[in-house]
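Record copied across here:
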Amino acid sequence: MRIIFNNILPFKGFTAMAIYPFILIRSEFKSYQHSERWNSLILHERIHFEQQKELLLVFFYLWYGIEFIIRLVIHRNTYLAYKNISFEKEAYQNDKKISYLSTRKRFNWLKHL
């Protein structure tokens, strides 16, 4: 895992994104490193790493994009579409559980479809 701070990805309005094996974090959130939010942020992205490995990275992004479009049609709101993607639901529901990755079952995101 390598953390890269930058001003390009993720797009403005988002904090971080995982592209295995990198976590891209917007530069304005560099101060998070010394806060309680940091561990949650990193765990959230590490959950995405596991999802990406399960779907061989390419299929993760394909599924993510298709599910986002479907959710956008349903919710007619980009934020709600994003929050309702199965990968995001799993990550948000478990990003405060420190031991989650050691007990996580493979393809657990399917429960959130």
